[in-house]
Amino acid sequence: MANLLKNLTFGIELELIAAWPRQLYGEGPQFSAVQAIHLALLGAGVAVTSKEPGWEDRHDEFRHWGLKPDLIRLSPAETAAVPQNYAVESVELASRRFDFYRDDWRGEIKRFIDAVARLDNVGARFFTNSSTGLHVHVGNGDKDLPLRTAKNLMQLATAFERVIDTIHSTNRIAYPKIFRPEASTIGDFFHTPLSWFHLNNGKTQSGMLYDWLGSIELARSIEALNKICSVSEPVRREKGILERIYWGHNSSYNLDNLHLSDLGTIEFRQHAGTLDFLEILHWVMLTTSMIRYCSGAPVSAFLALCAHGIDGHFDLRDLLSAIECPADTVSYFARDEEDDETIGFLGNLLPLAAVADLDELIAHNDVESSDRLSDEALREAVVANKHYGYTSNVVHIPLEAIERYYTEAMDSVPHRFDKTSLLGSEDKELLARALVWHRLSRNYKGEEADEEVHISSASRLDAWI
Question: Helix or strand or coil: residue 266?
């Protein structure tokens, strides 16, 4: 596979909740969580800034970690579990921008995790809940990610949402149900699955996966592609969702930074909050592997892979192997070696008898974050009730014929469309790919499966979505 991204970069954002005795360091001014973590990281040799306001700008070209208070919410039960003499704060920690190939990012993230963990020696406790997340931003150094890469990523993620869901905790894969800002489930609409948007965005008049992939293909700009993750006006009104211009921040895959800021990154937002080093490491490897694959996959191979999205026998191991994830990452997420390691939390924190209720809360939330290991029945029930764009009554899809479909589509494009409407070879490829998805959709539905699809103009093809 040709890799077109020579300057692959990434950064992580970690959201967590800090609880600790008031006057953490004895007499004197009360330290905030941001201040204490700042000092701990500096002591560990991690370059960090918590300067407010404007820390997000980080004019040092993202060479430092950044810290700031966050807006994470506690449920009533979580609030009740915190002892009265404890202060509770939510914190977001954003890493510096790492060069994937050249930096020792594994070592630096480990130093960060260890520095935060050592704060438990003075009574600090850190935990996550359903409103916290681990976000990964992946980019191409100072260059923009190509539209083709972004399209491929959205198609890959849409085709294999069912498979990727097996990685995540249950509360990260269910459809959002409550959108009211005051609701305790405020985090539900900040990592919404792509399938939900396809069913509610009013752009694809179909519940069929191949039609969803075709609608992604026809986007001619990052802004148009980003609108895949939006909600139609009737649905917005029905659900009581606030009006938005851009919806990327509400999606499990956020493209906002590709056209609204200088970040130039795709943000992966689906993963639950965690401070488990191995979980962070392997999730970074998976997300960067997705981008690397999507930047250089041959057309026919990519189409054939995504066509497997309707194949219920195509599993996580198959997907991760296909996109060339490292073997240890495949093994980790495929659970080849079950162990007693906890996913989603620091693990062996200092047991404090005075905060037994808090310990119980941490244990409960820890299990919730790791229920892909502990509650498979619940996970399977959620997956069974989701609509991934196909049914169990799958007709035969001629995967072996996809390369021929694409070749025929490329040959037929000049005859099907007014040549003046084409912008060049990239547009020709776009239309040919879209025709393949349209043809596969017809095959799936049993509509003239063996006959050529006739679409008379580019505007007619655009109208298809």
Answer: strand
Pairing relationship of beta strands 125-127 and 98-99 according to DSSP bridges: unpaired
User: What is the spatial distance between Cα 51 and Cα 158, in angstroms, rounded to a whole number?
Assistant: 38
Higher-pLDDT residue of 68 and 105 is 105
The two counts, helices (H) then strands (E), for the chain are 19, 9
pLDDT digits (tens, 9 = 90+) for 309-354: 998 889 999 999 999 999 999 999 998 865 434 333 333 222 333 3
Hey, what's the torsion of the CAs at 316, 320, 322, 325, to 10 degrees?
A: -170
Domain boundaries, the chain: 9-384, 399-463
First to last CA, the chain: 31
Per-residue pLDDT at 197 exceeds 80: yes
Kind and range of the H or E run holding 66: strand 65-69
- DSSP string over 77-146: HHHHHS-TTEEEEEEEEEPPPEETTTS-HHHHHHHHHHHHHGGGGGT-EEE--TT-BEEEEEEBTTBPPP
**Percent of all residues in the chain with a pLDDT value above 70, rounded to a whole number:** 76
Residue 11: beta bridge partners?
A: 137
Distance, CA of 21 to CA of 29 (rounded, Å): 13
Q: What is the largest CA-CA distance in the chain?
A: 81
In whole angstroms, how far apart are CA 289 and each of 60, 118, 217, 267, 461?
Answer: 27, 32, 21, 14, 32
Residues 301-313 as b/e (b if ≥16 CB within 10 A, e otherwise) read: ebbbbbbbbbeee
How far apart, in whole angstroms, are the C-alpha atoms of residue 385 and residue 160?
A: 16
- Residues written for the chain: 465
d(CA 361, CA 354) in angstroms, rounded, equals 14
Cβ neighbours of residue 448 closer than 8 Å, sequence gap 6 or more: 442
Facing residues of 14 across strands? 93, 134
Alpha helices in 334-401 (DSSP H): 356-369, 371-374, 376-384
Predicted TM-score of the model (pTM): 0.85
- Which amino acid is located at 33 in the chain? A
Contact status, residue 238 vs residue 179, Cβ threshold 8 Å:
no
At residue 67, φ and ψ (nearest 5 deg) are -125, 140
Residue 423 backbone phi and psi in degrees, to 5: -100, -5
Two structure tokens written together for 25 = 């360091």
